[in-house]
Write a structure and sequence with these properties.
- With 524 residues, the chain is α/β, with parallel strands linked by helices.
- It is built from 20 helices and 14 strands.
- The protein has helices at residues 9-12, 25-37, 42-51, 55-70, 72-82, 90-104, 110-123, 130-142, 144-153, 159-168, 173-179, 197-206, 227-230, 268-281, 309-319, 351-363, 368-373, 423-426, 429-446, 469-476; strands spanning 187-190, 211-221, 231-241, 258-260, 297-302, 341-348, 378-384, 402-408, 450-460, 482-484, 486-487, 495-496, 501-502, 515-521.
- Strands 5, 6, 7, 8, 9, 10, 12, 13 and 14 form a 9-stranded mixed β-sheet that branches. Strands 4-1-3-2-11 form a 5-stranded antiparallel β-sheet.
- Helix 2 (25-37) packs parallel to helix 4 (55-70) and helix 4 packs across helix 6 (90-104).
- It is globular and about 75 Å long.
- The two termini are 22 Å apart.
- The structure holds S-adenosylmethionine.
- S-adenosylmethionine binds at residues 304-310, 347-350, 353, 386-388, 408, 410.
């Protein structure tokens, strides 16, 4: 029996104090780390930190904060091994960890790292601990490579999470533990409604921004399709920057020519878009198919849409001339396009995050207003609603509303720890269970709203099986009208699972730890 779900515990944590942004750079970084340990997310404290600093200090503060977070648990273990007596005060531990990061990972000169860190302890009114801080940092400074080796040896995760990942990924475990401690590469998605990927790559060369073209192939076998359409292959192209760059240094960024989006996140929109294209192009002689395009409109849902990365991508594809749903022709003798209207609903239950959807779509000229002006016959509705209870049919009798659903589900975000290393501090073991329950509630509310013959793409940025393949296996036991679409061997991303595919953030050039499963609705 499913229980009532609640959001992950971290979402409920209240910040215990407002950040006081004064003092030296190190003091501000220490205060930021203390705020994160008190439950604030990195996303909420990073801008206040950086905005409080002179331009010349921002790079160092950013590196010090992010590196300390990435190495947090390894530094904690090292610290425990270095202290004669247990150190309990959070402020003292954090200060020493910030010192260790400078010595072991940032190659700051010994005397600056030690002196400035000791001074920081005085500034945060922990002068009583300066002797201890000084002694530990001096010991490490005498042989940094020995201590760096010690620190790098194991993982830098809380033990409960490392243990769970060992259970889930024993073969990939060592690489995964190292991969999760590294920074992630920056990827760009090119807005193909404006320019081609190759065209934008050329423009970047002129701006002296070095990138590599990344091509991901997604092969899958659609059930109940005609032979011609039975096997499909989609090519998703993105750009990987050699070095992370401020977006205002990118050509035509403010005009919407490109967006920052992880490479594996870029798989979502093409996948759901292409199965829909395929569905529309197949002659409707399938008894299992309830997709009614007789009124020339299709309805699609982005169920957890904020801040709108995948929604924007999908809208770019829909409004791009090459891949537009409006240009699909059925494989019958008829030649007229089958679709004259696409209705998209995007929901999310967090109002401030909905605001970010609007801002993002405006930059890309994809707001409701822009779409209306362009007379694209795309109707976009963005709604603040809870996906565990929301009903797209409103008062209509039939619940069957959507031809395709993208469910980019709330998750523990363990697959994006490289970008959000605060996750390893903020998450607790109990969050996995609670998050899995929330995901199940959303799935059970949305599935009855999908038309027979429609597709639901389930996505998470988690690397825990409970939220992914096990969630899908569990879900499928509830229904006799669900089939999992098989990805084929053509896929050059992720690891095949009993249902779906799992990407792991192992290698420093690849994308984040996303999971994808494509479900098809059959007749009961
Ligand atoms: C992984 S994020 C979505 C990212 C988004 N699809 C994108 O590509 O930019 C998950 C989203 O689910 C939303 N969410 C969490 N619980 C929800 C619920 N019960 N109903 C609707 N949205 C929910 C969160 O606010 C969050 O924005």
């Amino acid at each position: 029996m499913r229980q009532n779900s609640t959001a992950p515990r971290n979402n409920k944590l209240k910040p215990s104090s407002n950040l006081i942004m004064n003092g030296s750079v190190r003091v501000r970084v220490i205060r930021t780390l203390l705020a994160i340990q008190n439950g604030q997310s990195l996303a909420s404290v990073l801008d206040p930190l950086l905005n409080s600093l002179h331009d010349g200090d921002k790079g160092f503060a950013h590196a010090l904060l992010l590196t300390t977070l990435r190495q947090w648990y390894a530094l904690e273990r090292l610290l425990d091994s270095l202290a004669d007596n247990p150190i309990d005060e959070k402020e003292v531990r954090t200060t020493i960890q910030v010192g260790l990061t400078q010595l072991l990972y940032l190659q700051v000169a010994d005397h600056a790292a030690i002196h400035e860190t000791v001074e920081a302890a005085k500034e945060i009114e922990f002068a009583h601990a300066t002797g201890l801080i000084n002694a530990i940092l001096r010991k490490v400074a005498k042989n940094p490579s020995k201590f760096r080796k010690k620190c790098d040896k194991k993982h830098s995760l809380p033990n409960w999470l490392a243990y769970q990942l060992k259970q889930d990924w024993s073969e990939q475990y060592d690489d995964l533990m190292q991969g999760l401690r590294q920074p992630a590469p920056m990827f760009l998605r090119v807005n193909t409604a404006i320019t081609s990927v190759e065209g934008y790559q050329q423009a970047l060369v002129e701006f002296e921004v070095e990138v590599d073209l990344v091509e991901l192939t997604s092969g899958f076998n659609l059930p109940n399709s005609s032979d011609a359409a039975a096997s499909n292959s989609i090519l998703t192209k993105g750009l990987r920057l050699h070095q992370s760059t401020a977006v205002n240094a990118l050509p035509q960024f403010s005009e919407g020519a490109a967006s920052v989006q992880d490479m594996h996140a870029q798989l979502a929109a093409p996948l759901i878009h292409n199965v829909l294209l395929n569905k529309l192009s197949v002659k409707k002689d399938d008894a299992d198919d309830d997709t009614d395009t007789s009124n020339n409109e299709i309805r699609i849902l982005d169920a957890c849409a904020a801040p709108g990365g995948k929604l924007a991508h999908w809208l770019e594809l829909i409004s791009s001339n090459e891949s537009s749903l409006f240009h699909v022709k059925q494989d019958s003798a008829e030649t007229s396009p089958v679709i004259s209207k696409v209705k998209i609903t995007a929901i999310d239950n967090e109002a401030p995050r909905i605001e970010r959807i609007h801002t993002n779509l405006q930059r890309l000229n994809l707001s409701q207003h822009d779409l209306q002006q362009a007379e694209k016959n795309i109707e976009l509705n963005i709604v603040c609603a809870d996906a565990t209870t929301w009903q797209g049919a409103g008062k209509k009798k039939s619940k069957l509303v959507f031809d395709a659903i993208l469910l980019d589900s709330p998750c523990t975000a363990t697959g994006v720890i490289r970008r959000h290393p605060d996750i390893s501090i903020l998450r607790t073991e109990e969050d996995i269970e609670q998050t899995a329950l929330l995901q199940a509630d959303i799935l059970h509310n949305l599935w009855p709203q999908l038309k027979v013959g429609g597709y639901l793409l389930y996505v998470t940025c988690s690397i825990l099986k409970q939220e992914n393949v096990e969630q899908m296996q569990d879900f499928m036991t509830y229904y006799n009208n669900v089939a999992a679409v098989e990805f084929s061997d053509d896929c050059n991303w992720g690891i095949e699972q009993a249902i779906g595919r799992q990407c792991l953030p192992i290698d420093s050039e690849s994308g984040d730890g996303f999971y994808y499963a494509l479900l098809y609705k059959t007749a009961e």
